[in-house]
Amino acid sequence: MIKVTYTDSTGKARTVEAQVGATVMETALRNAIPGIDAECGGACACATCHVYVAPEWIDVVGKASPMEEDMLDFAFEVRPTSRLSCQIKVTEALDGLQVTTPAKQG
Amino acid sequence: MSEIIKTDVVIIGAGPVGLFAVFELGLLDIKAHLIDILPKAGGQCAELYPEKPIYDIPGFPIVTGQGLVDNLMKQIEPFGPVFHFNEMVGALENVGTPEHPSFKIETDGGKIFECKAVFVAAGGGSFQPKKPPMVSGIEAYEGKSVFYAVRRMEHFRGRRVLIVGGGDSALDWVLNLAPIAKRVTLMHRRDAFRAAPHSVKQMHEMVAAGQMDFVLGQPCGIKGADGQLTSVAARRDDQSEFEIPCDDMLAFFGLTIKLGPIANWGLNLHENLVPVDTTKFETNVPGIFAIGDINTYPGKLKLILSGFHEGTLAAQRAHHYVYPDKKLTFQYTTSSTSLQKKLGVA
User: Fold this and answer.
1) 20 to 30 Å CA-CA from B320: which of B78, B177, B179, B208?
2) Distance between CA atoms of B143 and B341, rounded to whole angstroms?
3) Nearest to A106 among B130, B190, B220 (CB)
């Protein structure tokens, strides 16, 4: 079983089981993880599912696409490790993934 | 006090559903004015996904958000709808009786309307600018030295203006304000822009010519007193911080949807949606209808095509309020000469 850990801006961590094929955003919503709003429902159109990927996971997860980079302009406190979680699909390789949610979504 | 604008129906929200309601009302000889907080028609279709294809509009295997809006605008042209853009409805009250309602509507821009029925076609609510969350107390600066839109260019004359963002709004105002401001600084989180390439090119040329500055960073704090900025603190990708002295900040972080003043109009609300009955899409207040994404009822689907149907039935019922003494006869546009005359084709 694949596990993803979401840590909020205060440092509280929640580890949940994720299904292959679901996005990191969907996994968060299904498990009622706070700090991910996902206003647009996963269309890469709102930047309210912003997460920081743990540095050691960045190479596995990959970089944002140009469209995702454009949407990240609408997020706050964007960092080099920023991604929109609706654009990260869960795969076997992501077992143990760690992401942090920002203090505020859009 | 401005002059009162009198009309049959005021439609709040000029998205696809509000636009098509003009058509269905027009066929019944009902005139409409539309109010929208955005500067143009189309609502989310035009604002959020103008280039994204939509596949579930009957009769259009594929159409873009903007394409649909353009076609709707053409379709309702014969009915001469009047648009009031950049206006948000603040107050809405029934100054008539429940049997013969008459509504008074006031916008934040000071426009006053009087009408016999109201169509709330406001989608998820009103689009409002996202505020940089980095500072508590930014509200004290808003409208004085922190802005999310330009309402009066003259304000910026001779001032040091920091513009934050990387889209067309940011770049357009960089180019428009550079000639009149004392100094314009553009700040964006990366050296890539969503704005039109020629605007970006022009901006780079001005930077090269020493006429303005461009810095990489994101705002993280402000300094000033009594609503007047003195500087904005910013953070680079490596988390180092620096300060930009300025008199004004214009921040363009896009828009977010908030329910807004709808909550104050005496309508029943269920999880930020307005319950309606499905025979006429009227709310708990007689004469106020809710159509499109803003309403809720058993089986509701937030689809544009559902909104078209809802507006059509609401128009039938609105006829009762606008022409209480006239009987409404159902007609088809294919066969009715009188409808075709209204459409300007007979």
Assistant:
1) B78
2) 49
3) B130
Q: State whether B167 and A80 contact (CB < 8 Å).
A: no
Task: Say how far residue B168 (Cα) sits from the centre of its chain.
Answer: 17
ipTM (interface pTM): 0.84
Contact A73 B132 (CB under 8 A): no
- % chain A with pLDDT above 70: 98
Quote the CA–CA distance of B247 and A24 in Å, as a whole number. 41
Residue B198: C-alpha distances to residues B34, B50, B174, B175, B203 (Å)? 34, 20, 13, 11, 9
Task: Give chain A's domains with CATH numbers.
Answer: 2-100 (3.10.20.30)
Cα separation values, B102 from B4, B114, B149, B190, B318, Å: 13, 7, 34, 52, 12
Instruction: Say which residues have a Cβ less than 8 Å from residue B53's Cβ, sequence separation at least 6.
Output: B62, B63, B64
Distance in angstroms (rounded) separating the CA atoms of residues B53 and B73 = 18
Tell me which chain B residues have a C-beta less than 8 angstroms from the C-beta of A73. Answer: 165-167, 188-190, 194, 253-254
Collect all residues of chain B within an 8 Å Cβ-Cβ radius of residue A77. Answer: 134, 218, 220, 235
Q: DSSP of B214-237, one letter per residue?
A: EEE-EEEEEEEETTEEEEEEEE-T
| Cross-chain residue pair A76–B49, CB shorter than 8 Å | no
Residue B331: is its pLDDT beyond 80? yes
pLDDT digits (tens, 9 = 90+) for B99-111: 899 999 999 999 9
Candidate from A45, A77, A79 with C-beta closest to B49:
A45
CB pair distance less than 8 Å for B254 and A73: yes
Q: Which of A69, A70, A74 to mutate to test the interface with B (most CBs of B within 10 A)?
A: A74
pTM, two decimals, is: 0.72
Collect all residues of chain A within an 8 Å Cβ-Cβ radius of residue B192: 69
- State the Cα torsion B150-B152-B157-B161 to the nearest 10°: -20
Side chain identity at residue A72, one-letter code: L
Neighbours of B221 (CB within 10 A): 15
Among A47, A73, A76, beta carbon nearest to B166: A73
Q: Is A26 exposed, middle or buried (0-12, 13-18, 19+ CB in 10 A)?
A: buried
The Cα B243–Cα B230 span in angstroms is: 10
Contacts of B134 in chain A (CB under 8 A): 76-77
Structural domains of chain B sorted by starting position, each given as residue range(s) with its CATH number in brackets: 4-127+256-342 (3.50.50.60), 131-253 (3.50.50.60)
> Binning pLDDT at 50, 70 and 90, where does residue B1 land?
low
Please tell me the distance from the alpha carbon of residue B149 to that of residue B109, in angstroms, as a whole number.
Answer: 14
